[in-house]
Automatic annotation (TrEMBL):
Location of 4-aspartylphosphate modifications: 54
Location of the Response regulatory domain: 5-121
Residues in HD-GYP domain copies: 148-350
A Pfam family it matches: Response_reg
Keyword vocabulary terms for this entry: Phosphoprotein
Superkingdom assignment: Bacteria
Cited function: May play the central regulatory role in sporulation. It may be an element of the effector pathway responsible for the activation of sporulation genes in response to nutritional stress. Spo0A may act in concert with spo0H (a sigma factor) to control the expression of some genes that are critical to the sporulation process.
Protein name in the entry: Stage 0 sporulation protein A homolog
InterPro entries for the chain: CheY-like_superfamily, Cyclic_di-GMP/3'3'-cGAMP_PDE, HD/PDEase_dom, HD_GYP_dom, Sig_transdc_resp-reg_receiver
PROSITE patterns (alphabetical): HD_GYP, RESPONSE_REGULATORY
Length: 350
């Protein structure tokens, strides 16, 4: 174990040497300075465990030195014991107010100085141990929460695989949705309109959450999901329920996991990714910026991915043709600002 270092700050040599001898007798290492500026420089380069600080010093008094120590994140927890030849209640009050831990008067009584030093070193060490334990506990809690989040995400992805198989989508389809949502979100992040809405964390989250959009398909009959002919009105109503079913699946998780960005964004995407810019979509008929941005992004990306993939009733369109078709719905089904960005980055899409 390293011997604690105690910094003595006093402009009077006799006082410094007296404290030096007391500190050595107590079994600790003294570090002597004769001014506040010297003390601040020592603290910048040396690990100090306790400061014994004189109040009445030229240029920078002890109160100012204390304030600077307490303003520094790296040194603010170090205990400070003030010393003064004057047993002035006002000095004592001011010393405690600026962050001092104790106060001793001159001339020094060795046993009293040793006792005060021992008390504050033990308190300082205990405080550091508690902070270390708290830090480890926080890391443990964060790791447990991360594991729980991953487990819930894995459950959602397992349900998603069932929904994907029911709809005859392959893994590549879901990966394309993820990657293209990320590319679009990253580009939107660079625009003036969306820079304040899209953070790096938002981009990472939408990449993970986007494939969950059709998780409600687990409740849709396979014959409807895989039907190649036009759906009947009743079949369309059944199909549209997948947004509400998916939202209910996520609601149960969200109620237990408040503040989980992944679950909250997934919930927005699942419920609103079939809403239209002009209000003609489902399930709620909201319009414009009422539609969560994440759902707007997934809406246009899933439409693009569907157009550029083979279907039983048609071949895949080229990127250029798919984007051209989407353009016909800009301002109707899709946010025109998102479409403009999608058009600009069409060569980057997969």
């Amino acid at each position: 174990m390293t011997t604690p270092k105690i910094l003595v700050v006093d402009d009077v040599e006799a006082n410094r040497f007296a404290l030096r001898d007391i500190i050595r007798q107590a079994g600790y290492t003294p570090v002597l300075t004769e001014s506040g500026m010297q003390a601040i420089k020592v603290l910048e380069r040396t690990q100090i465990d306790l400061v014994i600080l004189d109040i009445a010093m030229p240029e920078m008094d002890g109160f100012e030195v204390c304030r600077q120590i307490k303003e520094n994140v790296r040194t603010r927890e170090i205990p400070i014991i003030f010393t003064s030849a004057l047993d002035n209640p006002q000095d004592i009050k001011q010393g405690f107010a600026c962050g001092g831990a104790d106060y001793i008067t001159k001339p020094f009584v060795p046993d009293i100085v040793k006792a005060r030093i021992n008390i504050h070193l033990k308190l300082y060490e205990t405080t550091r141990q508690l902070q270390d334990m708290n830090h480890k506990l926080q890391l443990s809690v964060i790791e447990q929460l991360r594991r729980v989040e991953n487990e819930k995400r894995n459950v959602l992805y397992a349900l998603l695989r069932v929904a994907r198989e029911n709809a005859a989508y392959d893994v590549a389809h879901m990966e394309r949705i993820s990657k293209n949502c990320r590319v679009l979100a990253e580009t939107l992040q660079l625009t003036k309109e969306y820079a304040d809405l899209i953070s790096d964390a938002y981009v990472d989250t939408i990449e993970l959450a986007a494939p969950v959009c059709d998780i409600g398909n687990v409740a849709v009959p396979t014959e409807i999901l895989q039907k190649t002919d036009r759906l009947t009105p009743e079949e369309s109503r059944i199909m549209q329920r997948h947004t509400e079913v998916g939202e209910r699946i996520l609601q149960g998780i969200d109620d237990e996991e408040q503040g989980n960005d992944f679950i909250q964004m997934s919930r927005d995407i699942v419920k609103y990714h079939h809403e239209s810019w002009d209000g003609s979509g489902y399930p709620t008929g909201i319009a414009g910026e009422e539609i969560p941005l994440s759902a707007q992004i997934v809406n246009i990306v899933t439409a693009y991915c569907a157009l550029t993939e083979d279907r039983s009733y048609r071949s895949a369109f080229s990127k250029e043709k798919a984007v051209e078709i989407l353009g016909e719905e800009a301002g109707v089904k899709f946010n025109p600002a998102l479409y403009d960005v999608l058009y600009m980055i069409k060569r980057q899409l997969v």
